[in-house]
Amino acid sequence: MEKYTKDNPLKVFTTFSGYDSQCLALKKAGIPFELIGWSEIEKRAINAHNLIFPEYADKNYGDICKIDWTNVPDFDFFTYSSPCFIGGTLIQTKNGLKNIEDIKEGDEVLTHTNTYHKVITPMDKVFGGLLYHIKSANGEIICTPEHPFYVRELTYKYVDRKHSKVRTFGDPIWKQAKDLTKQDYLGTPVNNESKLPEWDGVELYNWGDNRISNKLSDLFTNHSFWYLMGRYIGDGWSINNIYKPTGKIKTRGIKICCSKKKESDSLSLEDAIKNCGFKYTKVEERTVFKYQVTSKELWMFVQRYGNRADGKFIDLDTINLPVDYLKSFIEGYLDSDGYHSKSDNTYGVTTVSKKLAYTFGQCINKVYHRAVRIRYCKLPSTHVIEGRIVNQKSFYQVNFKKENSKQDQSFYENGYIWSPVNSHKNGIVTENVDSCIVYNIEVEQDNSYVANNYIVHNCQSFSLAGKMLGGEEGSGTKSSLLWECKKAIEIKKPKYLMLENVKNLVSERFIGTFNLWLKYLESQGYTNYWKVLKGSDFGIPQDRERVFCISILNPEGNFIFPKGCKLEKNTLDFMQTKEEIGEELWNKLVDPDENTDIYLKDNEQFKKFAAEQK
Fold first, then answer.
1. Pairs from 169-173 (Cβ < 8 Å, separation ≥ 24)
2. Which of 117, 133, 241, 375 is deepest in the core (most CB within 10 A)?
3. DSSP readout, 330-382?
4. Which of 129, 141, 126, 134 is nearest to 178 (CA)?
5. pLDDT tens digits for range 78-129
6. Is-contact 96 315, C-beta < 8 A?
7. Strand ranges (DSSP E) for 48-101?
8. What are 156's strand-pairing partners?
9. At what angle do helices 323-337 and 263-275 cross, to 10 degrees?
């Protein structure tokens, strides 16, 4: 690095700045510097930065996407890092719900126009930073700060001299996750199909004469059949018994369990089976009745609903049913595995299957034009019952009301349900993650898709694959946060660049993407030097590994990473009590709604840790 002095300091611009550990490092190294600008949007990080560097409080340029780099003073040193959904986010496709990580090019996904369009490019990346948990009536979605949602903004209009007011809503707009408030109502498209499934029957025996059985098609206009399928979703399973001596299939069909506590449930199930013309057997056990219907055709049909409690879901053919048949299906599910609270007239089900919770929510949206409340209840993996340790699974709870009321916040209009962001702190909960893989998809024509039942836009996401690192200017592709860094690099041409990111960036899965970025920097005249470094090798009691890439414009020599130093301190040496921090500084740093005591030296966990170190 060139010799910088007090009269000629290193001019620095940091992005995704946090409290600017980069500037703290320059200060500790004795390198004179001037912070030309920094870019940060997270409130607590901004507060910390202003406390550490109050002289630069007015230099925050905010959202990197809104910076006009031509109006920023020149700088020598630029630091950066490299928006999107986490794995497990459910995407509505023409073939039902799919995890976002399983979406392929050519898949057709539902868009904000309530029509299906093809996926052009699925994308993923390693992400470290702030994730936003967006909660509303139809469920929760987790994404990076910049992902746009399809929302309508609530305002109030006064209508008479008594100052009474009514709710009014603007036209739908796209709004980034970090900008959402309680006044924003998220859009959910309601299924508008009304058709029966196509069913060709099954070949009964392998006799070579293509003998086909198709008895079910005639039952598709029978309400009892769909009621029975609802009972199957709740308390049924398929049977596929094999005769062990020969290995040939002995019996195929379904079994549905029914509690003995409520006789009406048993009778309604029996009536549905009889009304469909199925022959059945009934077995009484200590607490339940079990009904078995032997039918290869029926066995084949129910495969569409998945297997096991955690693998069940409602297929799109069933959700596409005419409303009156779908209503019978819902009633069957509620009778098997649901409950009804008479105090507030609320209905609900519980399930360990995320897909079942969200597809059942789609059924309620369609039949009753009502939002549902989907809540994830996390449990310990084991539980003690009568002295025995048993496994248990976390579950989803789905609640809804069939009738509208004055207290409703969500509403239906013209094929969409609009639900307010409804958790604390303006409906937004944030989580800082060290490393995870996030996903995004590019969709033709509408540039949108439905994730966890909410309409979202193509995220302006990090995608180095394809057309020149996610799109040169004028290429027609979506830009990204990395593209925003590219703009800074190309316009300002700083002498030094420093990329810091999670170790997974150079893993087998992402090394190709990383290499593409390095090639881009080389095309701009930079020579790159990168290495995985660990904090504990440099005197910091932290095992987290990070990738550092130093890029130098037209270097005169080689850059060599430092060797590090001996670790002589542990975590406790950096901790303070609340009294040591001081009340004034404490109130500036902490979020009053967060359990911040866990960060204090006199916390019980740290006391225990300290005792173990002695």
1. 169/418, 172/112
2. 117
3. HHHHHHHHEEEETTTTEEEEEES-HHHHHHHHHHHHHHH----EEEEE---SE
4. 134
5. 998 754 556 688 999 999 999 888 899 999 999 999 999 999 888 777 676 7
6. yes
7. 77-80, 85-86, 90-93, 96-99
8. 167
9. 140
